[in-house]
Amino acid sequence: MMMFRFLSILFVIHVHVEADNVASKYDLDIDEVKQQMDSKLAMIDGKLREMKMRMDALAGDNVKLKMKMDSLAGENVKLKMKMDSLAGENVKLKMKMESLAGENEKVKTKMDSSGAGEENLKAKLGDKKQIMQNMKTLTKEDIKLKASARFNTHVDTLIEQNLNLKQIIEDIIENNSTYVETPVTTYIRWGRNVCPAGATEVYRGYAGGTWFTEPGGGADYQCLPNRPQWGRFTEGITTYSAVMHGTEYQVISVPNMRNPFLGTNAPIPGNPESLHDQSPLCILCSVPRQETLMIPAWKTCPEGWTLEYQGYLMAEHRGHASSKSFICMDEAPEAAAGGRGNQNGALFYPVEATCDTLLCPPYIHGGELTCAVCTK
């Protein structure tokens, strides 16, 4: 459900921004517009919950089918044991029939070799009775053998049916397994426009935010898609609105500024100073894991976590009216091509440690803080 929640969160943000635009354009009550939008969101959330219940029901059906398969496997074992027992009885019956046939042959030979006379006649009559009794016994044994053969055929049919049913159940379980949702977590890679190996791009774009001297507006940097999708709008900035500006790196090696970054991906390759006053890129990435964590002052991840990227902590200047959340900028950042430079907007400054209430050591006064983005 994490993907559903993520999409829902994105949709909520979009809907509230849309509500502000609509209210601003048509001079409507923004609370009333947002209330209508929240009602629609509640309906969508209900649908998501309904889908979750259906998935739980399918998981329960899979458990029942697995129990049925185990029961059928036990019945197959019992039937196999019965077949083995009947096979043994068949061997015994066959041996008995062969013995009776031998006795009949002896009686017949005796009758052929016997002479005339009353005593011989009585013996012959007695032998005939014995032959008739043996024939009756053989007939009964033959009936048993035929019944046993029919039973064996029935057992073979049942085993074949059970195997077919087992295959059907396995197919159902395999089909139901497609409804099991793979966990997904997302993170923004600030300063780059490609995701690390093993991650999937959701979208790429440019960093944006509130103008550095404005106390109002949003308090977070935003990763804006490079291909926006517009709804209803009116051109021209109004007095009653928040404004989204572009951003710039503020990184240059002068007495009052620092640049800890690598120049690998800088506008002038190998020269990190060329990042100064340029616009940062960003990309939203997803990985098949459950949690995302940004750790300040670390370049590695805890045991059991996967390092997505490392870099340096950045935020708005401490003296500016517009404060921003701390973000982790990639250690080898890029800049948007065609940037005009030094247009200001929302700004990114390296974050330094200061030895007042912060413990030094282990922290170093004035040291630029590293960061790591980890997933698990």
TrEMBL record:
**Source domain of life:** Eukaryota
Q: Name one GO cellular component term.
A: extracellular space
* Matching InterPro entries: Ca-dependent_lectin (IPR051077)
- Put simply, this protein is called Uncharacterized protein
